[in-house]
Amino acid sequence: MRIDVVGGGLAGCEAAYQLLKRGVEVVMYEMRGVSGTPCHKTDNLAELVCSNSLKSEAEDTASGQLKAELDLLDCMSLRCARESRVPAGGALAVDRELFSGKVEKCLSSFENFRLERKEITSFDFENPVVIASGPLTSDAFVKAIADKVGADYLGFYDAVAPIVDAESIDYEKAFFASRYGKGDPTDYLNCPLTKEEYDSFVTELVNAKTALLHDFDKREIFEACMPVEVMAKRGADTLRYGPMRPVGIKNPDGTRPYAVVQLRKENAQGTMFNLVGFQTNLTFGEQKRVLSMIPALKNAEFLRYGVMHRNTFINAPELLTAGFLLKADKKIAFAGQMTGVEGYVESIASGLAAALNLYAAEKDEQEIIFPPTTICGQLQRHVSTPSENYQPMNANFGLLPPTGEKIRDKKLRKVAYFKRGEQDMKRFLENRNI
Length: 434
Fold this sequence. Notes:
By secondary structure, the chain is an alpha+beta fold. It has two domains: 2-154 and 312-431, FAD/NAD(P)-binding domain (3-Layer(bba) Sandwich); 163-306, Elongation Factor Tu (Ef-tu), domain 3, CATH 2.40.30. The protein has helices at 10-20, 62-72, 76-83, 96-108, 139-149, 195-207, 228-232, 284-291, 316-319, 344-362, 375-384, 410-431; strands at 2-6, 25-30, 53-56, 85-86, 91-94, 113-117, 129-131, 153-159, 163-165, 175-176, 188-193, 259-265, 272-275, 302-304, 308-314, 325-326, 329-334. It has a six-stranded mixed beta sheet, covered by helices on one side. A hairpin with a 4-residue loop joins strand 4 and strand 5 (91-94). Helix 2 (62-72) runs parallel beside helix 12. The protein is globular.
């Protein structure tokens, strides 16, 4: 059996692995190396673009529950991530290049794997295929997809945060500490601001010049990747309740800063830091000017400026089954952010589910739909449940049904969701030969 995979991102790589380990011949098509994108910087498989963090592993987080479920499903991507991790408190952050290298090495270790650097521009597939071309799918292939499915596709904007050179930071005006003391105190570098400094920063931020968004509707910005300047325009204190919140952080003298910008290590060597939550669409010149108003970053050297780009996703509930298969043609599966799952680990989960279901369909087996108490299962239901205004979805506890227990403590209630989902996934897998 041969199954093709279009796209060498997180979803495509996980889909490929799940098929390869089942003895399927996989040919992966990746256009980077032949044609680039506005945001990717390398030709590496599974390149992380927006952030180097795969979010929390804690039992009281939905992202932690999702990871626990994927671990039970032998998720290759998470295994590579843990082998490439850099300190980030309770979050699973990775050295981007190391992570990509481990993913590619894993896939290349299979004799039944072949990677072709080629831009796919049509839908002329002779074999079953997983479409995991990502939110930055080329215009030509987006048109081919639209022609194939006969439905309109939607778009929204995503933004990435700047990265600064560690040596250019003023450490006399910054201090290492994790929020609430979680994790290693050197995981995050905190850049505090006084009220006066914060007010001046916000004033300049909301009046700074942004890059042109060309022919797209600015209202399509997705909330989870809201540019920092857009947040600032919503109110003077919006950032203090968002990426610049001081809660859980104390200055070296024991006082709480009025506002704080957190920097997270971008690589294992700690030579680069990214500005946590500071996705932006300011022009490069304005980013340098305004972000340099943060005292610790006055003389910062920016290794990468933030950029904004369009993310494309299909109206999945109209087109896909809960197994990520195209309703009109079960030899075609979609995976990744193009389906309307939002986030790195969510994309990995969709690639895994799409691969399992396409494989099952080829063997004329029952579709695999995970329990409704699992994040994996609810993401499947999200992409297949009709909606008047279908939008991308992150992993969150709001997707899950109540536990039936009266647990007043919020953290303990979340842990109960986690443990229930993990146990239900174990039971599901015991009853299915997956």
